Amino acid sequence: MGTNHNLDLYLVRHGVTDWNQQKRYVGHTDRPVIESELSLLAPLKQALANIEFDKIVVSDLRRCQETFAYLQIDGEPNTDSRLREMNFGDWEGKTYYELKDDKVYQNWLNNWEEHTIPNGDSGDDFKSRVDSVLQELLAEAKSESNVLLVTHGGVIRYIVQKYHHTTSFWDFPIKHGTAITLSLSFNEEKGEWQCISLSAVPSQESDNV
């Protein structure tokens, strides 16, 4: 019998920014959180307060750094630019209504993994950098680990889709200032990590898989 490896991956989306409120694409543009909105994270702060994290990794963009500072989680964070949101290139700061008649944009919406954003990320670029972070974290995981990532909506959607295979990228709601917990277990027979449950933080009804 091999060692049983289980990991709880806490995925926190940063607090809201002005561009989020205006429904503008904000990828690598370094917008700060709206300070008056940070109090909305109080339930998340309370829910995470008593969890001991073996590893904390935070996107280098201000909105994630400021969110982590507000949460006051005990532990030394690692800053990693690979956890940035997609680079929306020419679409940064624009809204759906400004882009909806653009054929390139519509193609991207229909299949973001196969199309490249003008002067921004391709699907492969985005997935490969997020995957590289995950591979390092999973390789370092202890038999029982709690890992916290403070990152962006697109990153969280991709990670959830990767391990929770019934979830589509666009349909899974990720609210600002909330967290998703993926409980992963390493299947030695298949040689891969598998999701055994998904839940929201602060806690709601869990989705066991």
Automatic annotation (TrEMBL):
The keyword Hydrolase applies. It is an enzyme of class 3 (hydrolase). Gene3D superfamilies: Phosphoglycerate mutase-like (3.40.50.1240). It comes from the Bacteria. The keyword Hydrolase applies. One of its GO terms (molecular function) is alpha-ribazole phosphatase activity. Keywords: Hydrolase. InterPro entries: His_Pase_superF_clade-1, His_PPase_superfam, Phosphoglycerate_Mutase. Its EC number is 3.1.3.73. This is Alpha-ribazole phosphatase. The lineage of its organism: Bacteria, Bacillati, Bacillota, Bacilli, Bacillales.
